[in-house]
């Protein structure tokens, strides 16, 4: 449906941008991965602009110009034609069996495939939007969840409650109540009250 089409287009756009980011991070020094980069960039660009071959040729030549050692123009044209053929196969809607799953023809590379093909380090992955290992994605999700659980002072709900309890204990202590009385008033164990007072 439309939602799937939009999310697929967004994925292709971000993968295309990730390849550009990678070239930028490596300052154009992409020997060994250059042709894969050109091929994948062309393919993902075709996916985002719905097969506009002329535009893809221009964009891919522009990317090629950003390498320290650029590929020959005739070779870039051949790479784009290969990507276009794969795009046309994808556009046909025909399916093939890939790793026990039926997928549309075209390039069905996973992030793990791309990481291996383009020799992307973990440090580089951290600066990319979509080409990341499952391990790194999980790590970043967990970090976001932990950050979400904290308030503006950087405290979790439990830490915040503890701070509020300590504040109440100290307030009652200043009013002249002893630990047993404070514990009874706040519904805490006397040892907890003593521990919190000693912490301060």
Notes on the protein architecture:
The model has no long low-confidence stretch (mean pLDDT 88). This protein is 67% helix and 4% strand. The protein is mostly helical. α2 packs antiparallel against α3 (53-65). β1 and β2 (101-104) form a beta hairpin. The termini are far apart. It has a two-stranded antiparallel ribbon with strand order 1-2.
What are its keywords?
mainly alpha; two-stranded antiparallel ribbon; elongated
Write out the strand line-up for the largest beta sheet, numbering strands in chain order: 1-2
* Through-space gap between termini: 60 Å
Proportion of strand residues? under 5%
Cα radius of gyration in angstroms: 28 Å
Number of strands: 2
């Amino acid at each position: 449906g439309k939602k799937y089409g939009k999310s697929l287009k967004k994925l292709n756009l971000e993968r295309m941008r990730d390849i550009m980011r990678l070239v930028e991070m490596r300052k154009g020094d992409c020997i060994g991965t250059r042709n894969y980069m050109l091929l994948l960039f062309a393919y993902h660009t075709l996916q985002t602009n719905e097969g506009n071959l002329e535009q893809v040729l221009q964009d891919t030549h522009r990317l090629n110009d950003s390498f320290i050692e650029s590929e020959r123009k005739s070779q870039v044209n051949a790479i784009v034609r290969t990507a276009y053929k794969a795009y046309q196969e994808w556009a046909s809607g025909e399916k093939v069996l890939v790793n026990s799953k039926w997928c549309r023809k075209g390039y069905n590379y996973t992030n793990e495939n791309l990481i291996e093909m383009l020799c992307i380090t973990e440090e580089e992955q951290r600066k990319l939007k979509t080409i990341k290992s499952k391990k790194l994605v999980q790590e970043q999700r967990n970090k976001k969840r932990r950050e979400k659980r904290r308030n503006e002072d950087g405290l979790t709900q439990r830490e915040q409650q503890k701070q509020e309890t300590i504040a109440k204990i100290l307030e009652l202590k200043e009013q002249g109540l002893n630990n047993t009385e404070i514990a009874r008033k706040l519904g805490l164990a006397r040892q907890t009250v003593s521990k919190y007072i000693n912490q301060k």
